[in-house]
Amino acid sequence: MFARSGQGGRQYLVYATKFEADVDLALVLPLPVPPKTLQEDVRFFNLEKYPRFFEDMDGDFPLPVPSGQTGPSKAASLTFAEVGSYEASFVPTVADLKHLDPRFRLSDELLEKLPQYADFGFAVFKLKAGRNDVHPLALDFPRREPQRLFFPTLQVRDGAVPGNAEFDHSLYAQLPAGKHPVRPGWLESQKSAGAFMKVELTQGIVDPEVHVYRRYMIGQWKNVDTFL
């Protein structure tokens, strides 16, 4: 995952995953948006021309040393847009999740286990059945806390939300010039992003003038989302 602050309190988020499934799936990412955020307030980016986004981003780091440890809207339906290999939509509220295809809905029982998402919005990506290793998902959204970057790291397994989970996350971030992560575990790239990434293919998501920070979260971790 990659995160960077955008203008006007917004945040860029890029997400990559590999999966194999016999049926179509939906990836649902919670987003800490302000109340009354509309579908059109969240933008999706097509990174189909830059499938090596994360491979290039990882290329300027030394070898890794892993460490372990608003009420309902009035919309009657959800609009999905073609974004490269995916179909993507923003679901403004928990109540609007009922408009998803029944195959992709989050059950009431599961949502009761996730009270922290009661006033979140959700980015939904439809994924096709089969073995998939395709281009990253990318979006930007308004934040309720513009001073913090958000990474959706919490895991749900078979309808359960364990207190601790086996993570295999690589987190990347860019901060404003002169800023550095205050939490331990973040490694800084050796050069600014423009020296090792095809920034022109990122559509403004990556700032070529500043460095990238990386943190691996591998092994057993407290099963929560991550903020920086």
Task: Present the secondary structure layout.
Layout: E1 2-5, E2 10-15, E3 19-21, E4 25-31, E5 43-46, H1 53-58, E6 81-83, E7 86-91, H2 108-112, E8 121-127, E9 130-132, E10 137-142, E11 150-151, E12 164-174, E13 187-188, E14 213-222, E15 226-227
Parallel strand pairs: 1-12
Antiparallel strand pairs: 1-2, 2-10, 3-9, 4-8, 5-10, 6-7, 7-8, 11-15, 12-14, 13-14
Description:
By secondary structure, the protein is mostly beta strands. It has one domain (2-227). 5% of the residues lie in helices and 33% in strands. It has helices spanning 53-58, 108-112, and strands at residues 2-5, 10-15, 19-21, 25-31, 43-46, 81-83, 86-91, 121-127, 130-132, 137-142, 150-151, 164-174, 187-188, 213-222, 226-227. The protein has a 7-stranded mixed sheet. Strands 4-8-7-6 form a 4-stranded antiparallel sheet, with no helix packed on it. A two-stranded antiparallel sheet has the order 3-9. β6 (81-83) and β7 form a beta hairpin. The longest helix is centred in the N-terminal third of the chain and has 6 residues, at 53-58. Residues 67-76 have low confidence and may be disordered.
